[in-house]
Write a structure and sequence with these properties.
Number of strands: 11
Largest sheet: 7 strands, mixed
Radius of gyration: 13 Å
Number of helices: 0
Shape: globular
Order of helices and strands: EEEEEEEEEEE
Length: 120
C-alpha cells in the first residue's frame, strides 16, 4: 500500500525560500497525480498546486502562489517537491501532499503535513 510523507517545513523570514518534499513508499509514485494543500489556523484546507502523472506533468497553481511556488517531480526518488520562494507571512500554514490515481482526481492518499511558518 502506498503512503506519502511530507518534510521540509520550518521557520523562515519573509522573502525566504523553502522546499517541501513529498515522498512515496510502497509503490511507484510516477503514475499518481500529486497535489499540495495548506491549512492555516482557523481556515479551511485549500489547494496550492498540483502536478499530473509522469509523462504528462501538467501543473496548476493557486493564483496567489503562481510565480513564487514551483511543483516538480523526481520519479527516480519517488518524490514530488514544492519549491517556495518569496515567502510571505500569509503563506504560514500546515502543508499537506495528497495523491490520486487515474484521470479523475480523487485525493485518496494524504500525508501527515509539515508546518511552514513565515515571520514578518
Amino acid at each position: 500500500q502506498v503512503t506519502v510523507t511530507e518534510s521540509g517545513g520550518g521557520l523562515v523570514q519573509a522573502g525566504g525560500s523553502l522546499r517541501l518534499s513529498c515522498v512515496a513508499s510502497g509503490g511507484n509514485f510516477s503514475s499518481y497525480t500529486v497535489g499540495w494543500f495548506r491549512q492555516a489556523p482557523g481556515k479551511d484546507r485549500e489547494p496550492v498546486a498540483r502536478i499530473r502523472w509522469a509523462g504528462n506533468d501538467d501543473t496548476i497553481y493557486k493564483e496567489s502562489v503562481r510565480g513564487r511556488f514551483t511543483v516538480s517531480r523526481d520519479n527516480a526518488k519517488n518524490a514530488v517537491y514544492l519549491q517556495m520562494t518569496s515567502l510571505k507571512p500569509e503563506d504560514t500554514a500546515i502543508y499537506y501532499c495528497a495523491a490520486s490515481q487515474g484521470v479523475t482526481v480523487r485525493w485518496t492518499l494524504w500525508g501527515q503535513g509539515t508546518q511552514v511558518t513565515v515571520s514578518s
